[in-house]
Specification:
Elements: E1 3-4, E2 9-10, H1 14-21, H2 25-34, H3 38-43, H4 49-68, H5 78-102, H6 119-129
Antiparallel strand pairs: 1-2
């Protein structure tokens, strides 16, 4: 198998899929490395780096479970299948962020700093201390 890490493609996905179905941990690691370009897709969904990593790990787990259950039927469609899962994870993230914002209690948010001082006053006070 030829691994082209930058593009996230493998010349022939069939052997990797067969090895994963057979329980090979090395094949799972190769899958993890081969699809890492999906992280860029997730980053473009305005996710924080820790959220990108969590989503990518969850994607790989979902993908391995699907492969062991016989999906996708044609191994060469694995990258497209993985992107479908990634899109769903991106949508879930956006929906979750929308829900959080919708139910945010703006009246009880505690802002850092002293709200009675303007930014100019803070600068003046820090200059006076110096």
């Amino acid at each position: 198998m030829t691994n082209m890490r930058g593009g996230g493609t493998v010349s022939n996905w069939t052997p990797m899929v067969q090895q994963i179905r057979a329980g090979s941990e090395a094949a799972v690691e190769e899958l993890y490395d081969s699809l890492r370009s999906i992280r860029h897709f997730l980053r473009n969904r305005h996710m924080r780096p820790d959220q990108v990593e969590d989503a990518y790990h969850a994607l790989i787990i979902d993908l391995v479970v699907a492969i062991r259950k016989g999906q996708p039927r044609e191994p060469e469609t694995l990258p497209a299948y993985a992107m479908t899962i990634a899109r769903r994870k991106g949508i879930q993230y956006i929906q979750s962020a929308i829900r959080e914002r919708r139910y945010l209690d703006v009246e009880n948010i505690v802002l850092p700093g002293n709200a009675s001082e303007s930014p100019e006053q803070l600068v003046l006070r820090s200059e006076q201390k110096e």
